[in-house]
Amino acid sequence: MKYSNREKNLYQHQPCQESFFCQNCGHVVSFTGAGTKHRNHCPHCLFSLHVDVLPGDRSANCSGLMEPIGVWIRKNQEWAIIHRCRRCGHLSSNRIAADDNPIMLMSIAVAPLANPPFPLEKMTQVLNDTTGDNNEQD
Fold first, then answer.
1. Fewest CB atoms within 10 A around its CB: which of 5, 97, 99, 138?
2. How far is CA 52 from CA 3, 37, 110, 120, in A?
């Protein structure tokens, strides 16, 4: 999606109150219900679009789908979604919205636990080595 020079930087200082179709799941997304006037991702699938270099500036020329790949907790205990652009790999962080799908948020949060970077059997071995339990019978 291309933005005119007039539209660029428009949303850095004023709210975006436009509805849009999510390019990932097709839902109509409205700014109402978000708990903020700066809607930047779909509350259903949590995908976004790579349109900004800085939040609200509409200066990115990529327009790739931004996939939600993780969550993190800010200093104030507020959750934020980590997005990665499927086209160029750009990473960004966006505050969650009040109406975000809680099941999608939790599935992203626990995804690393479901697919650890090591075999699960290794955890048992490490735990046994630390506690001195070698499964030896007396």
1. 138
2. 11, 16, 28, 40
Q: What DSSP string runs through 21-82?
A: E-TTT--EE-STTSSSSB--S-TTT--EE---SSTT----S---EEEEEEEEE-TTS-EEEE
How many DSSP H helices and E strands does the chain contain? 3, 6
Question: Is there a contact between 54 and 60 (Cβ–Cβ < 8 Å)?
Answer: no
Q: How far apart are CA 83 and CA 40, in angstroms?
A: 11
Domains of the chain, by residue range, sit at: 10-131
Distances (CA, A) of 63 to 41, 77, 92, 115: 13, 30, 14, 30
Q: Are 33 and 43 in contact, with CB atoms under 8 Å apart?
A: yes
* Residue, of 16 and 48, whose pLDDT is higher: 48
Contact 93, 75 (CB under 8 A): no
